[in-house]
Amino acid sequence: MSRLTRYVPVLDWGRSYSRDALSNDLIAAVIVTIMLIPQSLAYALLAGLPPEAGIYASIIPILLYAIFGTSRALAVGPVAVVSLMTAAAVGQVAEQGTMGYAVAALSLALLSGVMLLAMGVFRMGFVANFLSHPVIAGFITASGVLIATSQLKHIFGVTAHGHTLFGIIGSLLKHLPDANPITAILGAGATVFLFWVRKGLRQFLMRLGLSAKLADVATKAGPVAAVLATTLIVWGFGLDANGVAIVGEVPQGLPPLTMPSFSPDLLATLFLPALLISVIGFVESISVAQTLAAKKRQRIDPDQELIGLGAANIGAAFTGGYPVTGGFARSVVNFDAGAETPAAGAFTAIGLAIAAVALTPLVYFLPKATLAATIIVAVLSLVDFSILKRTWNYSRADFLAVTATILLTLGLGVEAGVSAGVLLSLALHVYKTSRPHVAEVGLVPGTQHFRNINRHKVETCPGLLSLRIDESLYFVNARFLEDLIFERLARDKTLRNVILMCSAINEIDYSALESLEAINQRLTEQGIGLHLSEVKGPVTDRLRTTHFLDHLNGKVYLSQYEAWQQLSADQTRFDVA
Amino acid sequence: MSRLTRYVPVLDWGRSYSRDALSNDLIAAVIVTIMLIPQSLAYALLAGLPPEAGIYASIIPILLYAIFGTSRALAVGPVAVVSLMTAAAVGQVAEQGTMGYAVAALSLALLSGVMLLAMGVFRMGFVANFLSHPVIAGFITASGVLIATSQLKHIFGVTAHGHTLFGIIGSLLKHLPDANPITAILGAGATVFLFWVRKGLRQFLMRLGLSAKLADVATKAGPVAAVLATTLIVWGFGLDANGVAIVGEVPQGLPPLTMPSFSPDLLATLFLPALLISVIGFVESISVAQTLAAKKRQRIDPDQELIGLGAANIGAAFTGGYPVTGGFARSVVNFDAGAETPAAGAFTAIGLAIAAVALTPLVYFLPKATLAATIIVAVLSLVDFSILKRTWNYSRADFLAVTATILLTLGLGVEAGVSAGVLLSLALHVYKTSRPHVAEVGLVPGTQHFRNINRHKVETCPGLLSLRIDESLYFVNARFLEDLIFERLARDKTLRNVILMCSAINEIDYSALESLEAINQRLTEQGIGLHLSEVKGPVTDRLRTTHFLDHLNGKVYLSQYEAWQQLSADQTRFDVA
Fold it and tell me: Checking phi first, is residue A463 left (phi over 0); if not, alpha (psi -120 to 50) or beta?
């Protein structure tokens, strides 16, 4: 694969594009386009942007991803969590509905795009690993709750603000007396209908005799049916005159050329939100892409994915969009509908462009409550608190991280929640390494293998202490080992030799080296031998650059068994040199 | 030892206090008192406080430490680095010389005292370990440079401000034209004299025939001699009228009862500086205490030391002082002078109280330039850039941490410097664990021991891949292992079994568990066996709470040798269950 095709995968798959693939991609594109029209409008609403922004964000970004991305099925565009994060970030710098708000959303997309691109070029896809699985699961669940709650205002036809659960609920309760009853009936009706479509329609249709495949298609058309029905109701009864909020006029035309703001102040304020959006968007996207690729034994290149998503976001920034990423629902639909190559995405973009030019007048009477209902039903499928139970059973540290992520996301907002989750996970990991497990080991009879004396039936030798240190030695735990050894020595005055079994020591940093030197010196003063066994190659290499091995009063043994053989035979007291 | 004597060590050593100990303690106290009078005034000057604050900070805090501390030789009071940090912290909230400034210093001492006490009661002495040795060394060196530079203004008799190296030098250069020549001559003379006292006087006196002991005493009296000489010169020639800045009137009397401010805003602003001062003061103090205790085979209890230092700082807050800790120079002098118990500290406090009541008029004509000279000469002994060379040779990560600490301390100030050092050390450690060393291992002939095939002559078996993973598996590196295994499998299509040798895996968190499940599933699909060997007790315990071991397509072996024996014999292709 040449350098160019590595960075522009379209040159690879495009060369062997077949007629079969074309027809499959076209069918998938039609299905995804129909699904994306209401979804794009709805997510724009969630992001606090005019509805057309959602459509625009699905056109050029999809095309750019089709050129630069590696996933065959990923559908890029506005997604729920990133839309919520956009609203939280841009809400800090501008009022919803102003020009400044839309421009700030463009700047956010640009920043995010440049970050993703830079991470891709510098092959920094690994940063996504800093979000642990439980933190992501907790964050997505809490975001789902926040999003659903934030949409209730449209269901009731009131105004409400806030980026935290209590903020939103408080604001909602305050305005509830102004609720519009007709809006509420429409909104609640659409919500119930969509829940039923999701949970019961498929079985109902199959009981009526429809094939499973047809029933599936009908289920996916549910949101479109809700959109059509409520639009017709509002139009037919003139309900917009009765206070039902509608989408209204949406400009007809292709995505406009737009210019994000480059104000240094604005970019500085949006820097951290953009970073979080980039990393979370990337994690969501890559998870979907890898899941789908694994089903067809295809490979995803995470660094190239960063480049694809980066290009998509930069595209969004200059064509009236806002931050985008690979969405779960739309990608699964695309995959299920038979998409074979990223060309399906390109055809979807064309379909949406046609919709933007020709169909926007049709959504004039579409009630916002219906869009809110589609969001609520979609995001509640993201809500899954089972991660709490699963981590509780496995590891309290993971449980703590996920609980903090959920509570802080709900209580302080998305940015605080996910940042706290990452930092807490790291802090807990460091804390665990600060008090390492140290096992006193003995020989498993009949083998050359050494195990914890408290867990296995093993042979020990009087006067000889073998300690297996289950952690790398570094500044955070350097003092711990020193305290532990001398506390152990104080309890057993007959000890002559100490062997540190280093099979689990993957690193010894400068602080730990100084600590080992201090241990060696104190043991030497007490006439006790200090020996090392099973020191790994990289650790030995580094120790050789110092005088520690010269000062060591004992020896370094290749294996613990060798050390044991020599030292258990040596019953004479160690002589201080 | 009862609970009470654990928390109040004076009840332990006080009971067996002997006449010999009394006379040794008294002698040490006299020597330390003489040394502390100019030092206390000088450090108060460095902290931006009136000179008497330095004396006050040495009286009640010493008494409280004598009751609650565990070190027999530690001398508590103002020290250079903490004085500098106090100036940086309090300078953010008030102007030097104002009442608010002195009150904020009291609040800082109170906050720091409460934090230390809380850390002691909750046995959190381990937090000190987060400061790695190189970071401390770099921080102390950079602080020494900052302190020395900050005192040049007094040597030249000008005003200058700033908490960073460039800030101080810039301000100094701007005001240098206003320098007072007489002050400069006095200051430079005192500095040169004190350097000579430190470097050459001892040898000079011994060449004159003095005993080593007497020469030592004379060397220590150097600062007192400089104080006396310059005070007499200023008084004799009336130089204060010629613009030489003098200490002036210092209130005569015992430490006053003072009340720190409890303003929530102030306490919030001072919170982080107080935490840094607490931790750094504790690290400095405990290092000195442990070094001195080791020489006499005494034991220091870090958690009780926190309580002792906490009590001392709270004492300082209510008696006109500012944050204190155990100082290196004064403790060594105390130790060398023969102090046997904390009573020496109590006698020093009495000596200083007498000085505060009776001797303050004597320092009226003491030039501030002389105090600055004593600080400069004292702190330059802290400056030691050799840590750069030592860490460079041993570990680039440690080198990076110490370099960042030094540069940021000099460039942005003490708080930014030490915080960056700690965070960078942790980040580098986490980064290292994100790309763990993984060794392919084989059997060392004639043993049951397995080593890296690239470093040792070992036996391998076709179709069998043994990987030793040299790191705990957790979210940061969970994906890494998956990529590595499948990249390795892609290169060798003949593989039938993979053994993960887990001797260096100290933890498997929830994310890594999910990753292992994914690896197991993909290997199962490809008809390749996945086996684990040498899984540690705590890791096994945790895996047993999940279904992973049931799903695992291969086995868990006690030792790598056992796994090797079984699987190298089994030449049949693994059967998918």
Answer: left
508-537 in B: which are within 8 Å (CB) of A?
509-511, 513-514, 522, 534, 536-537
Under DSSP, the state recorded for B363 is G
In whole angstroms, give the CA distance from residue A149 to residue B495: 52
Q: Where are the alpha helices (DSSP H) in A435-536?
A: 478-491, 510-525
User: What is the pLDDT at residue B573?
Assistant: 43
Assess whether pLDDT exceeds 80 at residue A298: no
Q: Give the helix ranges, DSSP H, for B319-441.
A: 328-336, 343-354, 368-380, 386-394, 396-412, 414-434
DSSP B168-232: HHHHHHHHGGG--HHHHHHHHHHHHHHHHIIIIIHHHHHHTT--HHHHHHHHHTHHHHHHHHHHH
- A449 contact residues in B (CB cutoff 8 A): 448, 534, 558-559, 561-562
**Are the CB atoms for A397 and B509 separated by under 8 Å?**
yes
Q: How far apart are CA B516 and CA B505, in angstroms?
A: 13
| Tokens coding A365 | 């009477």
| B60 close to A (CB below 8 A) | no
Residues of B in contact with A479 (CB under 8 A): 126, 129
**What backbone phi and psi angles, to 5 degrees, belong to A250?**
-120, 125
Going across the sheet that includes B464-469, the strands are B450-452, B438-443, B464-469, B497-501, B529-533, B556-557
Phi, psi for A451 (deg, rounded to 5): -140, 165
Q: Which residue of A has its CA nearest to B546?
A: A394
DSSP designation for B471: S
- Predicted confidence band at A570 (pLDDT cuts at 50, 70, 90)? low
First vs last C-alpha separation in chain A: 62
Q: How confident is the model at residue A260 (pLDDT cuts 50, 70, 90)?
A: very high
Nearest CA in chain A to B437: A506
- Find the CB nearest A479 among B129, B480, B510: B129
- Interface with chain B: mutation pick from A429, A522, A534, A564, highest number of B CBs within 10 Å: A429
Contacts with B397 from chain A: Cβ below 8 Å: 509
Interface residue B546 vs chain A (CB under 8 A)? yes
User: Any chain A CB within 8 A of the CB of B303?
Assistant: no
Minimum Cα–Cα distance from A557: chain B residue = B449
What is the distance between the alpha carbons of residues A565 and A533, in angstroms, rounded to a whole number? Answer: 12
Average pLDDT for chain A: 89
Residues of B in contact with A398 (CB under 8 A): 509-511
- What does the pLDDT read at residue A2? 62
For the entire predicted model, the pTM comes to 0.82
- Interchain CB contact of B298 with A (< 8 Å): no
Q: What are B526's two structure tokens?
A: 């490809």
Q: Which amino acid is at B51?
A: P
Give the closest residue to A305 by CA, choosing from A294, A290, A292. Answer: A290
Residues in chain A closer than 8 A to B136 (CB atoms): none
Domains belonging to chain B, first-starting first, are 17-398 (no CATH), 438-569 (3.30.750.24)
pLDDT of residue B575: 41
Residue A324: pLDDT band with limits 50, 70, 90:
very high
Average pLDDT over residues A271-287: 92
What single string gives the DSSP state of each residue in B131-175? S-HHHHHHHHHHHHHHHHHHHHHHHHT-----SSHHHHHHHHHHH
Q: Would you state the torsion angle of the CA atoms of residues B116, B117, B123, B128, taken in this order, to the nearest 10 degrees?
A: 10
Largest CA distance in chain B: 103
Q: Choose among B391, B447, B513: nearest Cβ to A394.
A: B513
